[in-house]
Amino acid sequence: MAGATPQMPGPGHAHGHLPSSTSPVTSKLHFFNSVTDGGKQIPTYRVIDGAGQPLEGAVLPEIDEALARRIYKNMVQLPILDDILYNLQRQGRIVFYMTAYGEEAAIIGSAAALAPDDEVLAQYRESGVLLWRGFGYDNIMNQCFGTYLDSCGMGKQMPVHYGSKELHYHTISSPLATQIPQAAGVGYALKRDPARRGKNCAVVYFGEGAASEGDFHAGMLLASTIPSPTLFIARNNGFAISTPSSEQYYGDGIAARGPGYGVHTIRVDGNDVLAVYSAVKEARRLCIEEGRAVLVETMTYRVGHHSTSDDSFAYRPRKEVEDRKRLDNPIVRFRLFLESRGWWSKEEEEALTKRIKQEVMTAYKKAESLPKPELKEMFTEVYGGELPWNLKEQREELKKLVKKYGDSWEPWKNELKKHKGEGKDLLE
Ligand SMILES: Cc1ncc(C[n+]2csc(CCOP(=O)(O)OP(=O)(O)O)c2C)c(N)n1
Ligand SMILES: [Mg+2]
Q1: How far is the CA of 46 from the centre of ligand 2 (A)?
Q2: Cα dist. 107→341, 369, 414 in Å?
Q3: Contact 302 CB / ligand 1 (< 6 Å)
Q4: CB 306 near ligand 1, within 6 Å
Q5: In sequence order, which ranges of 91-240 are alpha helices (DSSP H)?
Q6: Residues 260-280 pLDDT 10s
Q7: Nearest ligand to the C-alpha of residue 307?
Q8: Interval 104-131 mean pLDDT
Q9: I need a labelling partner for 310 at 20 to 30 A (CA). Which of 62, 92, 189, 363 fits?
Q10: Which residue, among 87, 105, 97, has the nearest Cα to 124 in the 3D structure?
Q11: Which ligand has the minimum distance to the alpha carbon of residue 304?
Q12: What's the pLDDT tens digit per position in 391-412?
């Protein structure tokens, strides 16, 4: 019939004109954009202010004194551990290090909201999650020093590339964002496993810089289209090495991308540990209950240099960092909250920092005195299964070099002494 609205078959017919669309029809010609549409930016969820006091109308998470104190202690340990390891790198005792200064609330608040057996795929700045799960300073030191007791990779990885099967923390890999599609795969595997379906989720941490990689989009699309319980935690700390987040995206941060993938999304004040805890706890519940991806963007600030290979004052004013440290310190903010409840005191603070320093120093001294792994360990567990031909070839070459120089050339003799077995294991 000429002029009549065509009747579309299928579920879409009552709304739009495409079979898969339920979009309402409008006669208004209008383009929209999360940046230019006034007041439409995603809000930031916060429950306590800078003085540690609850915001009006805010619902605080149900945490008792014991949990609050545990969270606080875990936050406090991070800068102490970072100070010591950062200095050890400066003294040339370890080859590399990365600190988490300023991001203590985002890291510990989220760790506390997860189940200990949720599968974590982290970037590299989230060692606090492992410590929360009981990794311990000895494991940290053995990995950073690459001793024969390194439980993560037997000295094969750069420092801070931790991992633990028992603690459900997948080993860190340096290439940015690779963990994101992997997490969607882990989430899918959890959904297929009757023992873990409805019980656990995959949790992926990544920086706002890593979110510019194609892998971020691949991971989000996968977890939303082939639904899986994958919890995406974006740590927006303002920088990707020297690139400020203002140059990283034009849209409304990372959170704005969630709705595009049909993913439940929240933006949270990453310096408010109680807000992070509440948001991640609820995100986890949704993620597992619906078996679908959820995105949390924590807004924070990278107070430290990117790594020991960076001097951030080459690209940001020292004053900006000092101001941030002073005005919005997540540890101070939570301490004020605890003190206002009578849950913490100055004496406890002193005793705690003293104890942590001692424990870290003891672990460091122990690790520094330990030998490096046997030389043959260099080739084991690089891949699963049989050793591939190229590693066999490299092992044979090293064997020849150890035979040729091991007993006669000083630099080789000194280097081999650092290893358990002094290279003899390779010649067996
Ligand atoms: C694929 C890839 N490109 C570049 C790098 C070098 N790189 C290491 S960390 C980093 C910045 C990442 O920033 P962000 O994701 O925001 O995390 P943050 O360091 O701020 O925690 C870059 C560019 C890399 N490791 N991998
Ligand atoms: Mg960043």
Answers
A1: 20
A2: 23, 31, 41
A3: yes
A4: yes
A5: 104-113, 127-132, 137-145, 179-192, 214-225
A6: 999 999 999 999 999 999 999
A7: 1
A8: 98
A9: 363
A10: 97
A11: 1
A12: 999 999 999 999 999 999 999 9
pTM of the model as a whole: 0.94
| 252 confidence band (pLDDT: 50, 70, 90) | very high
| pLDDT for position 428 | 82
Q: Evaluate: CB of 176 within 6 angstroms of ligand 1.
A: yes
Report whether residue 239 contacts ligand 1, using a CB cutoff of 6 Å.
Answer: yes
Tell me which ligand sits closest to the C-alpha of residue 126.
Answer: 1
The catalytic residues are 302, 306, 315
Q: Which one of 78, 96, 241 would you pick to mutate in the ligand 1 pocket, going by the greatest count of ligand atoms within 8 A of its CB?
A: 241
Go through the domains of the chain in sequence order and give each one's CATH number. 65-369 (3.40.50.970), 375-427 (no CATH)
What the block records as the tokens of 175 is 């290439």
State the chain's maximal CA–CA distance in angstroms. Answer: 97
Residue 17: the pLDDT is 59
How confident is the prediction for the chain on average, in pLDDT?
94
Query: Which stretch of DSSP H or E encloses residue 296?
Result: strand 294-299
125 CB near ligand 1 (under 6 Å): yes
Residue pair 352/73 in contact by the 8 Å Cβ criterion: yes
- What single DSSP character describes residue 41? S
